[in-house]
Amino acid sequence: MGTIVCQTCDATIAYFEDEKVTTLYGKCDCCEHDHEGGEKE
Questions:
Q1: Among residues 1, 17, 26, 34, which one has the fewest Cβ atoms lying within 10 Å of its Cβ?
Q2: Is 31 within 8 Å of 8 (Cβ atoms)?
Q3: How many CA atoms lie less than 13 Å away from 36 in the CB half-sphere?
Q4: Are strands 2-6 and 22-26 parallel, antiparallel or unpaired?
Q5: pLDDT tens string 1-41
Q6: DSSP secondary structure of 3-40
Q7: This protein's superkingdom (predicted)?
Q8: What does the pLDDT read at residue 31?
């Protein structure tokens, strides 16, 4: 079981199937619109 966590606010975004316990970091919908010195996608 893997988890995707927001790198800005540490909120859990989603879960996905994986052989190992894995944590990936991304940005949630709330943080995508706040570009405080971050890079724009």
A1: 17
A2: yes
A3: 6
A4: parallel
A5: 999 999 989 999 999 998 999 999 998 888 766 555 555 44
A6: EEEETTT--EEEEE--SS-EEEEE--HHHHT--SSPPP
A7: Bacteria
A8: 77
